[in-house]
Amino acid sequence: MCIMSREWNASVTVAAVIERGGRFLLVEEETADGLRLNQPAGHLEPGESLIHAVIRETLEETAHTFEPRALLGCYMSRGLSSRDQGDTTYIRFGFTGDLGALDAGRQLDAGIVRTVWMTAEELRASVDRHRSPLVIACVEDYLAGKRFALDVLHTHPTAVGPALAAVAPGAAS
């Protein structure tokens, strides 16, 4: 019998794996450990679906629109949180899709230094600079042709609707 701590929570994140001409779009970002490479990625926010989260994060970190076409997979890792330096389990949903228009006047998220395009070989050679071990895992799955239809993700209306307190009892179960 396993008794789980009520204080443990996983951090849900999304990431966009975007490839053009054999190169992958990454962001270089400031972290407590110095400059790190990551896919356009970030945390799921209250009231949004996973798909809306990856669209928002890609826009905020690259100033490009993004149209998700497939889920690459679900990934899990553990590390120190950039927010509070606590031991955190991360659950990442990796997406691939089409990069859209650039909003040249849009400022990138705080901490994002620049965008950069890298080949898979360059990414493999720079794993010590990756923000997470999931960066290369997502790229390898992309290269292996893993793709899942977006309809495998189900978002119940209570997840993106009014606050749970306003929902009828039992509706969230």
Automatic annotation (TrEMBL):
GO terms for molecular function: nucleoside diphosphate phosphatase activity; ribonucleoside triphosphate phosphatase activity; thiamine diphosphate phosphatase activity. Belongs to the Nudix hydrolase family. NudJ subfamily. InterPro entries: NUDIX_hydrolase-like_dom_sf (IPR015797), NUDIX_hydrolase_dom (IPR000086), NudJ (IPR033713). Its cofactor is Mg(2+). Residues 7-140 form the Nudix hydrolase domain. Keywords: Hydrolase, Magnesium. It comes from the Bacteria. This is Phosphatase NudJ. It holds the Pfam family NUDIX. Its EC number is 3.6.1.-. Monomer.
